[in-house]
Amino acid sequence: MAVKVLLVEDERRIADFVCDGLGARGLSVEHVDNGHAGYARASEGHFDIIILDIMLPGRDGLSILSELRKKSIATPVILLTARNELGDRVKGLDLGADDYLAKPFYVEELASRINALVRRDHQSALQVGSIRLDRVSRQASCNGQAIDLTSREFNLLEYLMRSPGEVFTRAQMLEHVWGYDFDPSTNVVDVCVKRIRAKINELSVTHDDKSPIEAVRGSGYRFRLVQSS
Ligand code: CA
């Protein structure tokens, strides 16, 4: 699947060469030219990486970044800065930017920064549809927004997400996630699934109406297989 890039940049010339250069390298780039649209698209969270200019009409890049991180949207961000904006660069990194690039820059340089960040992000992560698990930090997120799971809930979600579409019985889930033989009549699995669903439902990011964990009557549960876009 192509790496999905959101480019928020008001200078037409820069936007054009970034779109062309990244497009030619097989990346999929969506461009918006003002801060309000940039924030709106970025907070929907469907991107692998966000390239964010600092000086923008409507709303500046640093305020967008700070708001995204406040909402626990962890999509990697590369800031584009002017040569004389050293203070902004430092502030940007403090606010949670992953990298920055001073203008003017070569698109090769931008592409290699993107690759490094996306690779770093993907190695430790398991993603199916809108749900993503970071196995190093043990943090789950939905479209970029953190889901506050207990360790048990995380393990259950990871177990199902390793084989999306496959049905697991309650006994299998008990054995793998709880690690010992429970009375099969116990409802701990159902309670745990219910809590995970509720935590995903209360998020403010847009997500599918259907729960990613699907009950299969008489059998157990499976992680919903999503159509890739
Ligand atoms: Ca600008």
State the helix count.
8
**Element string (H = helix, E = strand):** EHEHEHEHEHEEEEHEHHEE
**What composes the largest sheet?**
5 strands, parallel
Globally, the shape reads elongated
**Beta-strand percent range:** 15-25%
What does this structure look like?
By secondary structure, this protein is an alpha/beta fold. The chain is 41% helix and 21% strand. It contains 8 helices and 12 strands. It has helices at 12-24, 35-44, 61-70, 86-94, 107-123, 151-161, 170-178, 188-201; strands spanning 4-8, 28-32, 49-53, 77-81, 99-102, 125-128, 131-134, 139-142, 145-147, 168-169, 213-216, 220-223. Strands 2-1-3-4-5 form a 5-stranded parallel β-sheet, sandwiched between helices. A 4-stranded antiparallel β-sheet has the order 6-7-8-9. A hairpin with a 2-residue loop joins strand 8 (139-142) and strand 9. The chain is elongated. It starts with a strand and ends in a 6-residue tail after the last strand. The chain binds calcium ion.
